[in-house]
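Working notes for the structural subgroup meeting. M.R. asked for a predicted model of this chain before we commit to crystallization trials. I am recording the input and output together here so anyone reviewing the notebook later can reproduce the run.

Input as submitted:
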Amino acid sequence: MIRKFATLLVMGLFSLSAQALDLEYKGFYQRLDIIEENELDKITMGFYLVDAYNRERCHIDKAFFFGPGVNEKEIDIAADGRLQIPYDKELYDRFAVLRVNLSDPAQNCTLQMQIQVKDNQKTEFSFAELSVYREQMQSLVDEFGGFLWFMMPDVQGLNLKVASDNTLSFIDDSLKSGFNCEDLQCTLLVEEELTSNRMALQFSQPPVVISPWISKD
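Returned structure, recorded in token form:
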């Protein structure tokens, strides 16, 4: 089922040369539009280029939009390599293309998309916030499934990529049995319909990224 889910996140990507990739904006817009239409205000889609062989982030010189009637517009690249893709109906209507110039021709880059929490600066999380993240992520997964939503995988909780081993400064006792870490990647089981505004988790540094935890069962 997870493999089926992954195939839903494939979009137009064309290799222009060893040092550039062209990506249709249409695929970006369609995914961002689902988030907007369903008012999933706590989550977003993270777009990255990764090496197809080792899954390491690709080194990017710059990325910009072009196309018929489109003024060339460069986009920002976050420190973690995330492509800062805008939600822009005009770019969609004008069939814009994103060209990404790569700095390492040895990398075989492909697009990786990831559902993730929008606010990447938070260090404290209440029970209610954790529940909302899980619920909105499940809603988006189901939307990607369309009329086969009932076959989509269940979001069990959250994946938390942390900055270092000692960034977790507080975890409520009720969550400890469902919290596991391997290296810098942690998973947290999140029960449905948690409503308490009590603090559940606290970190000394914001988690690098918070994404859905989908059980392999």
